[in-house]
Write a structure and sequence with these properties.
This protein is an all-alpha fold and 393 residues long. The chain is 80% helix and 0% strand.
């Protein structure tokens, strides 16, 4: 039998959770709540390890690529990510008013007032070994230090630690996510919150996909204007990479196609070979749009403060933390969990909701990321003094 993909399993978990919540069988809901408590505590323990493992190794790896183009590529990728998140924030704050998210908030408050809360049968404390900001600072220190002194031993150690953390994510966190989502939605349905949230997020998802399309168009209009290329033709050439990313849900797995189509757009081979693999790691404009939009919607629904200063600080840090995104489905949201908790004040329930909501959009966010990588390569190619030389094949 073919293995069922993550997204279908998440959908199955979500539907089963809603049905179990509607059934009102309290012992099953409590058992799921107990699992959620343990799994949530485990996530809290793993988050600092994810940050140290991936950010430190990612920064250290950047030191391998010498030359002026490294700083330029990193700067453009970071600016693109921040612009995408900021653009999403301003559009969302305007459009979400038309969606009347406050109505969903009132429904949730009413449900909470009448909620029949069920406590876990038992809990297991798993305190993290350090806080999120401590983990970020340690990751920056180790990563930059390893790059500066060019320590192969330290780099190898960080890469091996990164591999361990990635195994934890791919072999423990990701496989148990459907059961975790099942438990979350079982409890939410039992408490009467599911209908309010799901009625809103169908519309939110449509807005996210539209935002992805707009940011891709902006990236290629800018790149095409500066480099002397036709933006529509440049985008058309990147469609195979976009569709491949939807299927693989992985920027890394899509690199061969992204590389081929970028060269077809006329980017010099050396620039493309350098920029595309690098951007697959550090440029996540589509994922940032999704994370910003979903988190903002949840904050409005749950009546949390969501001013520009708070969200812009989150977006600025998100652009850095995205370097930590592991190359597995949902990797970006895993890397962002620490910021969601420390900067936006998300509790276990909201973090779990973010995971579920993000993963339903993961393939489209990844497709936006890799398509934007091609635009960044065009800009780097222009900075390097090369002209676009379009190829037919």
């Amino acid at each position: 039998m073919k293995k069922i993909g993550l997204l279908p399993r998440l959908i199955i978990g979500l539907v089963v959770g809603i049905l179990l919540g509607m059934s009102g069988i309290e012992i099953i809901i409590q058992l799921l709540g107990t699992f959620n408590s343990i799994f949530g505590n485990f996530l809290g323990f793993v988050i600092p390890l994810i940050i140290v493992g991936f950010v430190a190794a990612g920064i250290a790896d950047l030191g391998k690529d010498a030359g002026k183009l490294l700083g330029v590529t990193v700067a453009i990728a970071y600016i693109s990510t921040v612009i995408s998140g900021t653009f999403a924030y301003f559009v969302d704050t305007t459009v979400f008013q038309q969606l009347h998210l406050e109505d969903a908030a009132e429904m949730i408050k009413a449900a909470e007032a009448n909620a029949r809360s069920l406590s876990p049968l038992f809990t297991v404390d798993m305190p993290p070994i350090m806080g999120v900001m401590t983990a970020l600072l340690m990751a920056f220190t180790l990563g930059i230090g390893a790059a500066v002194i060019n320590s192969e031993v330290l780099k190898k150690g960080m890469q091996e630690f990164q591999a361990i953390v990635e195994k934890v994510i791919s072999n423990i966190v990701i496989p148990f996510l459907p059961l975790h989502i099942c438990g979350i939605f079982a409890n939410m349905t039992y408490e009467g919150k599911t209908a309010a949230i799901m009625s809103v997020f169908v519309k939110v998802f449509i807005i996210i996909i539209i935002l992805h399309a707009i940011i891709i168009l902006f990236q290629y209009i800018l790149a095409g204007t500066l480099a002397g290329g036709n933006p529509i033709r440049l985008i058309r050439n990147m469609i195979p990479a976009y569709l491949t990313a939807i299927g693989t849900q992985s920027s890394a797995a899509t690199i061969p196609v992204t590389l081929r189509q970028t060269k077809k757009n006329g980017v010099a081979e050396g620039v493309a070979d350098f920029a595309i693999p690098l951007c697959a790691t550090i440029h996540l404009s589509g994922s940032t749009i999704t994370l910003t939009s979903c988190s903002l919607a949840l904050m409005i629904i749950y009546g949390m403060p969501h001013g520009f200063v708070t969200m812009f600080g989150f977006i600025l840090m998100l652009g850095i933390t995205m370097v930590a995104a592991p190359g597995v489905p949902g990797g970006a949201v895993m890397a962002a969990l620490g910021l969601l908790g420390s900067m936006l004040g998300f509790n276990e329930e909201l973090l779990s909701l973010m995971i579920a909501l993000y993963l339903t959009q993961d393939s489209f966010g990844t497709a936006c990321n890799v398509t934007g990588d091609g635009a960044i390569a065009i800009l780097v190619n222009k900075f390097a003094g090369n002209k676009l030389e379009a190829k037919e094949n």
